[in-house]
Amino acid sequence: MDDAVYMRSFKEEFADIKQFCESSEVKREVEHTYRLLSQRPLVLYGAGAVGVSVAGVLRHYGLDVTCFCDKNKSGIQRETQLPIISPLTLINDYTNANVVICSVNFTVAIISFICGIM
Fold first, then answer.
1. What is the pLDDT averaged over residues 78-105?
2. How far is residue 75's CA from residue 14's CA, in Å, rounded to a whole number?
3. Which of 99, 96, 98, 118 is nearest to 107 (CA)?
4. What fold is seen in the domain 40-117?
5. Which of 64, 52, 33, 36 is closest to 102 using CA atoms?
6. Taking the model in full, what pTM does it have?
7. In the sheet where 83-85 sits, what is the strand order?
């Protein structure tokens, strides 16, 4: 009996992923998410490298980013020219905003903060 394990090739895996991404189910989900993100202000929590990258991707796909929120930075984010607001401003002025967490190292702390104010 042959104990060899069949491993799919990269091309086979890629073809399956591509087929899934092009499915009507995924397209509906993307369109739904786009509509939700477009209906309210969009705040990126974290004005570092991840936030800047996310802002670029969202802008590329036509989503307007309102601002960044960051407890350690303020002013205007140099690369994106978006304002950086404080967590207090987020609480007071953006209660209905969609918030996307753009931090690798502080995700748990940010979630705890956001959940604590709700």
1. 94
2. 43
3. 99
4. Rossmann fold (3.40.50)
5. 52
6. 0.78
7. 75-76, 83-85, 67-69, 42-45, 98-101
